[in-house]
Design brief:
The chain contains three helices and three strands. It is of the alpha+beta class and 92 residues long. It has a domain of 61 residues. It has a three-stranded mixed beta sheet with strand order 1-2-3, covered by helices on one side. The termini are far apart.
Amino acid sequence: MRAVLFAPALGLMGCSTLLAGCATLKNTPAQDQVYAMYDKCHPIYPQFTLYIVQADGRYTFGFASGTAGVTDFVLCMSGGKSSNWVTGRTPG
């Protein structure tokens, strides 16, 4: 009977630990900056999608069709400065 009561208690402890750990995860300032720039640039260049934003601010994006506008999108994302932090790929 004790084993039956122990398993749910252990599961509950594991879930609460997991939830507490996830609650402490926040974006870094570099990630927040990338997301802010994407919010500004995406309406202008809707064909580009942000896929991954690393903790140090590097990001990966994809585009729906063709490569037209990649340079302009990258310049927009970097605030008008050229950037070597970017990788682009087509979905699929």
